[in-house]
């Protein structure tokens, strides 16, 4: 008889509060698949991130390496069915983030006559730092579910920015789920199972895979690089910036709709890079465009990555060392009324475009307390003047209200909104 243990049990990651039903019935063969940790770094990235808490995981959680982001359209017209789905999703998310299977019986533990309640491709894989973060789009607050009066003012449609080339079919959506993990198979498994559970009630509108996190969200992390080869995330809001997080990231009671307290607003922008043109641009020009050097990521005129940027310094010709149209000057809080963002983007390559070019870029994601005072002014200033614009094109956009955290096993995603 083959040895049968749960995915969660196999890695000793059981967490109180994660549904125990079916544990021990759920099957994975020990030693099957390539999930066995082979080095210290793999072991570290196999850990589970707590699911319950004041805030949703996946926002200040140190950014994992991989992303699968999905936006759903709600297809049911019944509010009760939607609330029920959110409860089912929350239970599945609580299990999967702790390394368990999506359902109580799992991929092979149920009756043979029924479809399994887990699709199976993560059997044998550890939790891999999986976080699942949910958000509600503006379109959910139309008259379908009687939620119009509960739409936060901050969830207003974003304005059209100069240069926008947005494709509606990969923009917007009623509900988003951001899955981040250190293993792409774990992130994809989670989104796929949520889509499966949602059959008949939601349908996938668009989804995006990402790799090589392009932002650090903790000082414990080294700054990664984007596909233009520059360190990205140096001057990001970070987990350790407690005061700034309170002021700039988390929605506070009294900010508007109470159901959003402890939550945050997520802006997504898929930004295609004209990397072939970029690769024919001189190093000097590349560095002037960002206002930082490519090797260290130091501000121009400075030596080390975290040296403060000097926006006043002039070169021998009397020109600003950091140009007037440099990306970091235009995006800096000092140019935007003190606005900060918590950036959490990922690189993407979606094959090629049929014209001999890679379809590649940045899936930009940024969390904030109020996009009207944060993303909108920053993006307006970038869209008008940024010298980077010659090399990029915004092709998709999303804005989602991500509520506060799920408190315990009796709570669910969006309970405060739906009750
Ligand atoms: C509206 C917000 C922003 C968009 C859109 C955006 C696109 C974008 N950015 C890079 C690369 C870098 N950005 C850097 C800094 C930076 N970018 C934003 C905002 C947006 N970027 C901010 C708020 C900041 C921080 C500015 C500061 O306070 O100094 C950097 C420098 C390193 C860093 O601090 O992270 C790089 C590099 C690309 C490639 C891109 C679109 C494709
Ligand atoms: Fe940027």
Automatic annotation (TrEMBL):
InterPro entries: Dimeric_a/b-barrel, Dyp_perox_C, Dyp_perox_N, Dyp_peroxidase, EfeB/EfeN, TAT_signal. It comes from the Bacteria. Residues 56-211 form the Dyp-type peroxidase N-terminal domain. Residues 223-407 form the Dyp-type peroxidase C-terminal domain. GO terms for molecular function: ferrochelatase activity; heme binding; metal ion binding; peroxidase activity. GO terms for biological process: iron import into cell. Its EC number is 1.11.1.-. It catalyses: heme b + 2 H(+) = protoporphyrin IX + Fe(2+). GO terms for cellular component: cell envelope; cytosol. PROSITE patterns: DYP_PEROXIDASE, TAT. Keywords: Heme, Iron, Lyase, Metal-binding, Oxidoreductase, Peroxidase, Signal. It is found in: Cell envelope. Its cofactor is heme b. Belongs to the DyP-type peroxidase family. PANTHER family: DEFERROCHELATASE, DEFERROCHELATASE/PEROXIDASE. Involved in the recovery of exogenous heme iron. Extracts iron from heme while preserving the protoporphyrin ring intact. This is Deferrochelatase.
């Amino acid at each position: 008889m083959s040895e049968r243990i749960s995915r969660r049990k196999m890695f000793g990651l059981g967490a109180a509060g994660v549904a125990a039903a079916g544990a021990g019935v759920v099957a994975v063969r020990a030693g099957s698949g390539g999930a066995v940790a082979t080095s210290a770094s793999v072991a570290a990235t196999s850990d589970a991130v707590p699911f319950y808490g004041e805030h949703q995981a996946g926002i200040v959680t140190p950014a994992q390496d991989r992303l699968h982001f999905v936006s759903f359209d709600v297809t049911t017209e019944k509010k009760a069915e939607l609330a029920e789905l959110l409860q089912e999703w929350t239970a599945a998310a609580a299990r999967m983030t702790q390394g368990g299977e999506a359902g109580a019986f799992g991929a092979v533990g149920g009756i043979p006559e029924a479809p399994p309640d887990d699709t199976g491709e993560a059997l044998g894989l550890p939790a891999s730092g999986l976080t699942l973060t949910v958000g509600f789009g503006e379109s959910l607050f139309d008259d379908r579910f009687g939620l119009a009066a509960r739409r936060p003012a901050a969830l207003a449609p974003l304005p059209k920015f100069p240069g926008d080339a947005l494709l509606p079919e990969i923009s917007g959506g009623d509900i988003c789920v951001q899955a981040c993990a250190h293993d792409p198979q774990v992130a994809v498994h989670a989104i796929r199972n949520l889509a499966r559970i949602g059959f008949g009630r939601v349908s996938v509108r668009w989804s995006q895979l990402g790799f090589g996190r392009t932002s650090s969200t903790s000082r414990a992390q080294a700054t990664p690089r984007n596909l233009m080869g520059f360190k990205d995330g140096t001057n990001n809001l970070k987990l350790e910036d407690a005061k700034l997080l309170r002021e700039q990231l988390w929605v506070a009671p009294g900010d508007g709709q109470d159901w959003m307290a402890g939550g945050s607003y997520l802006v997504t922008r898929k930004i295609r890079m004209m990397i072939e043109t970029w690769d024919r641009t001189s190093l000097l020009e590349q560095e002037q465009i960002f206002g930082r050097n490519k090797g260290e990521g130091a501000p121009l005129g400075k030596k080390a990555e975290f040296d403060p940027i000097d926006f006043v310094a002039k070169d021998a010709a009397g020109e600003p060392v950091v140009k007037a149209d440099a990306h970091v000057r235009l995006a800096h809080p000092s140019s935007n009324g003190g606005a900060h963002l918590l950036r959490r983007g990922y690189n993407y390559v979606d094959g090629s475009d049929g014209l001999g070019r890679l379809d590649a870029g940045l899936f930009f994601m940024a969390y904030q307390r109020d996009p009207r005072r944060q993303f909108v002014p920053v993006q307006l200033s970038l869209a008008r003047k940024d010298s980077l614009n010659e090399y990029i094109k915004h092709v998709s956009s999303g804005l989602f209200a991500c509520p506060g955290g799920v408190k315990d096993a009796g709570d669910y995603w969006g309970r405060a909104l739906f009750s």
